[in-house]
UniProtKB/TrEMBL annotation:
One of its GO terms (biological process) is proteolysis. The chain crosses the membrane at residues 97-116, 136-159, 171-189, 195-213, 220-244, 250-266. The lineage of its organism: Bacteria, Pseudomonadati, Pseudomonadota, Gammaproteobacteria, Chromatiales. This is Rhomboid family intramembrane serine protease GlpG. The gene is glpG. Pfam families: Rhomboid, Rhomboid_N.
Length: 284
């Protein structure tokens, strides 16, 4: 993705991005606050997008932009509320992000194992025998309630799928395993071996998106200020122990720092654009 403009109005940037979406143009608006936004475009479409942007600057209040934004966002009134929710094309998701889905399925299988034989699954996967090297990674597969599982897998799918599409399965595997190792080690040495969950890796990917969106927008990995605030607040509340659940706070912090370091190490790594992703899907 190529940065081509800055605007002093977040709403104007969103309006133009929505209009471009209805025209089949790949434009992303990255909002810093209500008075500042950056626009990024797919390099292959840049000449056409710049032409559209010039026209937008001349007539930003033209009805075509309001109509396009409404068309882009309005729900289908013929469907029920459930049908109006965005559907996931699982076949396309598997072709685009097989590692993300493989980890998701593995966590589901381990959760089923936990329901069938709790003691066996914990005995084999918790970090109770540090000399057995696989245990430094396997706590990421354990979840202790359905809410815990769903929360972590939703975040994993949201972040992991984008990362894999933009940077590839190989990098996602390396980054995720290193985050798991260091986040699990942080929790083990600071608290105890009795913990589990994918949230350390999730916080690592969150940290990666947070930093990469600022220092390397060309990767196309961004996270909104609202989500950044939520994740940091959740981390802080966990350390103050005011939540109704027990959390692996040191795993979260260790994962966050590791992900941020990875974003800095890969600050010159380019991401695939949308056109390249479509070519990969076609080849598969």
């Amino acid at each position: 993705m190529h940065k081509f403009a800055e605007l002093n109005s977040a709403s104007a940037a969103q309006l133009f991005a929505s209009y471009c979406a209805t025209q089949g143009l790949d434009v992303q608006a990255v909002l810093s606050d209500a008075n500042h936004a950056e626009l990024f475009a797919a390099s292959a479409q840049l000449p056409q997008i710049e032409q559209e942007f010039s026209r937008f600057l001349r007539q930003p209040s033209h009805a075509r932009y309001q109509a396009a934004a409404w068309q882009h966002s309005k729900p289908d009134m013929q469907q029920s509320q459930a049908d109006a929710l965005p559907a996931i094309d699982w076949r396309a998701a598997w072709l685009q992000a097989p590692l993300t889905l493989a980890v998701l399925l593995l966590c589901l299988l381990v959760y089923c194992w936990q329901q069938i034989d709790w003691h066996s699954s914990s005995r084999w996967l918790q970090l109770t025998e540090p000399g057995q090297l696989w245990r430094w990674f396997t706590p990421m597969l354990l979840h202790f309630s359905l809410t815990h599982l769903v929360f972590n897998l939703a975040w994993w799918f949201y972040l992991g799928r984008q990362f894999e599409q933009r940077l590839g399965a190989g990098l996602l595997l390396n980054v995720s395993l290193s985050i798991a190792l260091l986040s699990n080690a942080a929790q083990y040495f600071m608290v105890s071996p009795h913990f589990g969950g994918l949230s350390g890796v999730v916080y690592g990917l969150f940290g990666y998106f947070w930093i990469a969106g600022r220092i390397n927008p060309a990767q196309g990995l961004f996270i909104s200020p609202g989500l950044i605030g939520f994740m940091l607040l959740w981390l802080l509340l966990g350390f103050f122990d005011v939540l109704w659940v027990s959390m692996a706070n040191w795993a979260h912090l260790g994962g966050l720092v590791t992900g941020m370091v990875w974003a800095w190490l890969l600050r010159h790594q380019a991401g695939r654009n949308k056109a390249e992703e479509e070519v990969i899907d076609t080849d598969i």
